[in-house]
Amino acid sequence: MNPLLKEAMQKELNQAKNLYQRKEYTLSFSYLERYHILSQPFYFPHLNSHWWMFKIGIKLISPKEIFGQIVRMIGSIGSLFGKYPVGNTGGANVSPFKPMPIPEDLKPFLENIK
Question: Band of the pLDDT at 113, cuts 50, 70, 90?
Fold first, then answer.
């Protein structure tokens, strides 16, 4: 993994965890969405993004998010085969199969990822 991508992923995850600790779950989730976009090509980080989204679903008592993240944790195995919807933000509010635009500030980190 490119060191700059790894650093960007860690930055987004750290922000999400800090906000989670402060019980700012909605804002934490937005950083997890960015972490998800960056982590999709890599199985364990991708799975980790859904784990943290699942934890927020529990905190918010959101059955839709809880169930959606369980399905997505199972489906994250697609990363092992290069099968994932590029740019998808990973929440239960979007189809797990829908490609989405990558935010401009994240695009440079994902260049040359196949």
Answer: confident
Report which of 54, 36, 4, 49 is spatially closest to residue 103, judged by C-alpha positions.
Answer: 36
In the numeric block, which tokens belong to residue 47? 């799975």
End-to-end CA distance of the chain: 12
pTM above 0.85, yes or no: yes
Residues 113 and 79: beta-carbon distance below 8 Å: no
Q: Can you tell me which residue has the tokens 């999709």? A: 40
- The Cα–Cα gap between 49 and 69 comes to 9
How far is Cα 16 from Cα 108, in angstroms, rounded to an integer? 21
User: At a CB cut-off of 8 Å and minimum separation 6, what does 108 contact?
Assistant: none
Spatial separation of the C-alpha atoms in residues 12 and 46, rounded to whole Å? 13
Average pLDDT value for residue range 4-9: 97
CA dist 82 and 73 (Å) reads 15
What is the dihedral sign for C-alpha 93, 40, 49, 44?
positive
